[in-house]
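Handout, section 3.2

Students often ask what a structure token actually looks like in practice. Rather than define it abstractly, here is a full record for SAM-dependent methyltransferase. The first block is the sequence as you would receive it.
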Amino acid sequence: MTPTLARQHLPHAGATPLADRRAHARDWVEIQERMLVPLYEAVYERLEVGSGTRLLGLGCGAGLALLMAASRGASVTGVDRGADERLPFARERLLPGTWDTHTRADTWIVDGSPREAAAAPGAPAYNLVTVFDPIGCAAEAEEGVEEQLTAATPLAEHGAFVVLAGWGPPERCSASSVLRIAAKLADPQGDSSSWCPSRRDDLEEVAQRCGLRPDGSGRVACPFGYADMGSAVRGMLSTGLFDAAIGATEQEQVDKELTEALHPYRRADGTVWMPNVFRYLIARIP
């Protein structure tokens, strides 16, 4: 996918009815979002995220990554556009008093662009900017990330860390074979922008175009595990990477082909298990 496998918020292509978007947003929160927890944990551990961290999360989606940083004592600001219905979950999760007694007052969720985050009360100079939405699934998704980073850079300190995430090598990502169904259905001629395999230097190229200085990288195992086939289908659909396929064909066909593609990963007890590897790049703002 693109956890940018995409907009972990995975990119959304194609028009989807509001009711379906809301259902997908809830499935994302209840089923799919937690699959990227190992990625968030690895990055936060490596960068020693804690009480001195002032984090700006771009494409924050439903806010699980922000919540994990806040639980370490970081002040967090999440920026996204609420069109995909995920942002209300971030607000709900991060409101003071809703999840534990240590919720910080310096937490904001911004529906809009990074520039609007500068208007948040007492907005700090950020020392960590994250883009956990996996990069590399579509050209327009990369362009959106670059636009956000360009707007966010002036809000951060010189030397601040920037973290970009993306899919690992296709041969290390079982989900790649499933996501090829999305591309095939969206455009049988193979020209679809809904999904394509990640390239080795996707993250480095984005960093270079945004004027960032690479300062380390890593790989993290993020297996996708589901209680049953129905949960697996709902989880994969919640990424948004099948929206274009649904628009080009119909929901029933997408569900059928997605189920068939997931079948090799169904285990004897009925659970579905897909090993995946994600990459992250740590860069600095000069």
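Discussion prompt for tutorial groups: DSSP finds eleven helices and nine strands in the chain. How would you have guessed this from the sequence alone?
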